[in-house]
Each structure stands twice: as C-alpha cells, then as structure tokens.
Amino acid sequence: MRNSIMAATLATLALVSIPGTALAHAKLQSSTPAANATVAGANARSINLVFNERLIASTVKADLVMTGMPGMPNHAPMKIAFTSMMGRDGKSLMLMPKRALAPGTYKVTWSAAGTDTHRMGSEFSFTVR
C-alpha cells in the first residue's frame, strides 16, 4: 500500500514539474477575417489562420461552409471549395476560396496537431456583406 501511494505521489510530482510549454496544445491565436467580424466581399478573398505554435502539416484539416444567406432563412449549409497553403513559419494557414465569397455567413472549422502531437480543433464564423 505504501509503495503504491509513493508511486502515485512521484508520478504526480513528475507531471507537475513538466514545463507548461511541453503541455501546450495548438491554438488559434488570430484569424482574418476575425471571429464574428463583418467584412466587405472584396476583403474576403482569403481566410488566414495564425496559430500559437508550428503545426504538423499532415494533420491539418479545414472546412469552409456557408451557413446563411441574406433573404434565405432556410438556407442549407453549403461547403465552399478552396485551396490551402501553410505558411513558411509552420504557424499559419491560408484558405483561398476558388470563387469570390457571396454575401452571407460563413463558418471555418479547423483541426491540427502541434508539436505535442495532440489533435486540437475549433471553429469560428464571420459574415460577408
């Protein structure tokens, strides 16, 4: 019993002593357009995502979906075709829609693993007027 308590205590101390950066996960630091922003169509030629750390390129996934269209309250979600490119720094991702984004609401969903290899993900929306 004493040995198992001692082992648990040592394991806990080992985890607590790991520097915070070793436990960090990939997080979205900023985006253009920003979350919940409204932008003119001319300013939505690309969606830029900037992360807090380098991403493992083979783990990066993203989707761009039009979730709403003015004057069409029952508009079904529509996937938007795009090409993507990782930045040279490994911390940024650019999504380039194949066609100009029409006025409406869009949702970007992403997932990726950083240096800790844990897949993280999130989503944000923006509006094009």
Provide a descriptive summary of the structure in words:
The protein is mostly beta strands. The protein is 12% helix and 41% strand. The chain has one helix at 2-17, and strands at 28-32, 38-39, 47-51, 61-68, 78-79, 82-86, 92-97, 104-113, 119-128. The protein has a five-stranded mixed beta sheet, with no helix packed on it. Strands 1-3-7-6 form a four-stranded antiparallel beta sheet, with no helix packed on it. β8 and β9 form a beta hairpin.
The averaged pLDDT comes out at: 88
**Quaternary:** single chain
Biggest sheet architecture: 5 strands, mixed
Question: What gap, in angstroms, lies between the N and C termini?
Answer: 66 Å
| Strand order across the largest sheet | 2-9-8-4-5
Indicate the percent of residues in helices. 10-25%
Question: How many distinct beta strands?
Answer: 9
Q: Rounded to an integer, what's the Rg over CA atoms?
A: 20 Å
Number of helices: 1
Helix/sheet category: mainly beta
Poorly predicted residue ranges: 13-21
Silhouette: elongated
In N-to-C order, the SSE pattern is HEEEEEEEEE
| Percent of residues in β-strands | 35-45%
Describe, in short, the structure shown.
It contains one helix and nine strands, in the order αβββββββββ. It has one helix at residues 2-17; strands spanning 28-32, 38-39, 47-51, 61-68, 78-79, 82-86, 92-97, 104-113, 119-128.
